[in-house]
Design brief:
Length: about 110
Amino acid sequence: MRYVASYLLAALGGNPSPSAKDIKKILDSVGIEADDDRLNKVISELNGKNIEDVIAQGIGKLASVPAGGAVTISAAPGSAAPAAGSAPAAEEKKDEKKEESEESDDDMGFGLFD
């Protein structure tokens, strides 16, 4: 990812076709040592392509990736009862975890605002 980001920085900075030297210079400026194999792979994949088009294609691909939203699963009518019965058990487990985390704070010997 760092190689792609460096390539994009160079391209957006006005260099339409960044070289390995350009990308290494960007990476060196933040203390990252470049891996030549990965760097050459990024350059070969992006060289000669319009960066705006590549970004637009990437956004289109990201639109199809689930973003951690709620997942609904359709179930048979008879299976709804067991699922409803397991909900209180899940809440009890969450409460137990909260209590444990509060206790671990007490073990530290000091409070946040002391």
